[in-house]
Structure formats: structure tokens, C-alpha cells
Design a protein that fits this description.
By secondary structure, the protein is mainly alpha-helical. Helix content is 77%, strand content 1%. It is globular and about 65 Å long.
């Protein structure tokens, strides 16, 4: 039996094989079904999260939270497009039984597929790190954030983030190192097997190092933000309006960081290991498993915004209060803070750092901020 027939690549292979030996066909059908289900769930999750974020963005009048919601909405849109485009490409490849030489003789679709894999992989990591940096500056340097970081600066940073990811994605094509169909014949990526020269080693290493640097930057900035908020609460300096607003955003950032580390960390580390491995070591199937794991990042990201909202956190605190009883004064105080913050932020243009700003800025600066 030929290799293409054994891999389910023959168009009539599934029909000709006898029933006891049609495992390849059933596996291919299972892969198509799994891809379709993953694509559907991802599109639904990201659409729901985008609806919630856009509704919050149109309603909010706090500049710092508007910047956060802008990046969060962009992250969800990126994940949505990633599911839609990459999922459609995967289903298209399986519909032709992975016969790339039939539907892609000039390797154009493989280059597009590989570029989309890299772009929609790096963009969420870059956006997550940009959100973490923005929140870290907003909490630790509120005066600088309110006076120097305008909305057009945030939009430029967002554009540069997408531009950097796009540049890394098209770099193999520009350097005449096009993406290669992997051994499973269901997707395209860098030349991970038998690299020709140092460029074939450098390109996947660049992808992995940029992704790991984005994750590390997110961890450092989120740790600094969490420590600053915890220190302010312990010193009882944060009795101003919008305290829970910071807590909501840092919970979402920590959720995004945790999801990214769990989903993308193994793939990025595995690519580095494969790029520096011995030449006779196989790479395809171990890489495919961690790639499938990384695709869950685009499914889990939107649920961070859906579940870790202020309204959901308030209900969780209510359940905890009912469980622990009236003895928990801290939960009661936090519930009152959440309710007061949500009421005041809906009726005021001041943000959570206003109390820190009002005591330091003159009236002209206060008017320019509000």
C-alpha cells in the first residue's frame, strides 16, 4: 500500500479499504470532526467575549479602562480570526485528503497557512504582554499614564504589535525560506526537519524566543502590578473609588497569562529543543501534539473575559459569603467595594487612580485628565 493511501491521502482509499483495516479513514474523519468542533466552539466563545467587551467599551468613560478594553477586544478579534482562518484551512486540507500536490502545486497555500500559524500565534502573546505593561504603568505610575499615554498612543502600540507579528510571519517568505508541509501533511510550519542552513534554524528560534520573551514580560509586569495593589491594600491607601476595577483587570490579566503559559509554553520550548536537536531525531508527531495544545489558547482566552468580569466576581463572592457565613468581614467589605465601584464608575469619569492624582496635580492638570 502506498504512503499516501496509508495516510488517508488517496481520494478513494477510504472506500477501498476493508472494514477491519480502515483505521486511517476513521482517524481522518475524527480529525475533521475535531477541527470543525474546535472551530465552532472557538468562534462562539470569541464572539460572545467580543460582544461583552464592546458593550463595556462603549459604556465606560474611564480612560485607563478604555485602553485596557481596546487591547482586550483586539486580542479577542485576533483569536476569532485565527480560529476562522486557520480552522478553514485545516478543513480544506482534510477535504482534499491532504493531497497538497493536487490543490497547491506552487506552495502558495502552504506559505499562507504557515504565515497565519505564526501571526495568529504571536499576536495574542504580544497583545497579552502589551496589556500587562499598560496595566503595570497605570498602577505603578498613574500620573505618567494619565498625562502621557493618550488613546492614540495606545492605538499606535496596538498597530505596532500586529505589525511585528506580521513581519515575523512573512520573514521566511522574504528570505526565500518558505514554509514546509509537515510530516502529518495537515499543516505548514518552519523547516523543523533536516534544516538546510543556519536560516532554517534561526527562523523557528526567533519565533520561540519572541514568544517566550512576551510571556516573561507578562509575568514580570503582572507580578509588579499585583504586588503594588496588594501593598496599597495592606497599607490602607486604596480607599478611593474604583478599587475593585483594578482587581477585575488584574484577575483577567493573570488568567490570560496562565492560559498562555500552559498552552504556548510547551510549544515554544519544544521548538527550541527541536531546533538544537540531533539531526536523526524525529520531530513531526511530538510537535503536532504541542501545536494542538497551543490551539486551546484561542478557545480559553475569551472565557477569561466572560467568567472574570465584575458581575461574575460579585456572584462568586456572594457564594463564598454564603458558604463561610457572616463571620467573613473581608468578603463583606470587598462586596461593598465592588458594588460601590460599579455604581460610581458608571456615573463618573474618574478612574481608580483619581485619588492618587488629585492630591498631586494642580487644578489645570486635573481638568486636562478628566
Amino acid at each position: 500500500m502506498s504512503t499516501m493511501s496509508a495516510n488517508g491521502s488517496s481520494e478513494t482509499g477510504c472506500r477501498l479499504e476493508v472494514r477491519p483495516s480502515n483505521n486511517t479513514c476513521s482517524q481522518e474523519e475524527l480529525s475533521i470532526t475535531a477541527s470543525a468542533i474546535s472551530m465552532t466552539v472557538g468562534i462562539f466563545s470569541n464572539t460572545l467575549a467580543l460582544f461583552i467587551l464592546v458593550k463595556s467599551y462603549n459604556r465606560i468613560r474611564i480612560k485607563s479602562k478604555a485602553s485596557f478594553l481596546l487591547f482586550a477586544s483586539s486580542l479577542v478579534v485576533t483569536d476569532l480570526l485565527g480560529h476562522l482562518i486557520n480552522g478553514s484551512l485545516v478543513i480544506f486540507v482534510y477535504s482534499f485528503h491532504k493531497k497538497w500536490e493536487t490543490f497547491d502545486p506552487h506552495h502558495i497555500m502552504c506559505s499562507v497557512f504557515g504565515a497565519c500559524m505564526v501571526f495568529f500565534g504571536l499576536s495574542p502573546l504580544f497583545l497579552g504582554s502589551a496589556m500587562a505593561v499598560e496595566r503595570c504603568i497605570g498602577v505603578t505610575r498613574p500620573i505618567f499614564h494619565s498625562t502621557a499615554l493618550a488613546s492614540h498612543h495606545m492605538k499606535r502600540l496596538l498597530g505596532l504589535t500586529w505589525l511585528l507579528a506580521a513581519l515575523v510571519a512573512v520573514l521566511p517568505v522574504l528570505l526565500w525560506r518558505p514554509y514546509k508541509v509537515q510530516s502529518s501533511r495537515s499543516w505548514c510550519f518552519y523547516h523543523m526537519e533536516e534544516p538546510k542552513d543556519w536560516l532554517d534554524v534561526l527562523l523557528p528560534l526567533l519565533f520561540s524566543m519572541l514568544g517566550l520573551m512576551a510571556l516573561l514580560l507578562s509575568i514580570v509586569c503582572n507580578a509588579m502590578t499585583s504586588c503594588a495593589l496588594l501593598r496599597a491594600r495592606l497599607r490602607r491607601k486604596h480607599h478611593c473609588r474604583g478599587t475593585s476595577y483594578h482587581i477585575e483587570m488584574i484577575c483577567q490579566l493573570l488568567g490570560i497569562m496562565l492560559v498562555s503559559c500552559v498552552c504556548w509554553g510547551p510549544l515554544l520550548i519544544r521548538i527550541i529543543m527541536l531546533s538544537t536537536r540531533a539531526k536523526d531525531e524525529p520531530a513531526s508527531f511530538s510537535l503536532l501534539m504541542v501545536v494542538r495544545m497551543a490551539t486551546w489558547n484561542q478557545i480559553l482566552d475569551p472565557w477569561v473575559y466572560i467568567l472574570l468580569r465584575k458581575a461574575v466576581l460579585r456572584k462568586m463572592l456572594t457564594l463564598l459569603h454564603d458558604f463561610w457565613g457572616p463571620k467573613s468581614h473581608y468578603l463583606q467589605r470587598w462586596q461593598r467595594s465592588l458594588l460601590r465601584s460599579s455604581m460610581e464608575t458608571s456615573n463618573s469619569g474618574f478612574g481608580p487612580t483619581d485619588c492618587r492624582l488629585l492630591g498631586r496635580l494642580p487644578d489645570t492638570a486635573i481638568k486636562s485628565i478628566t
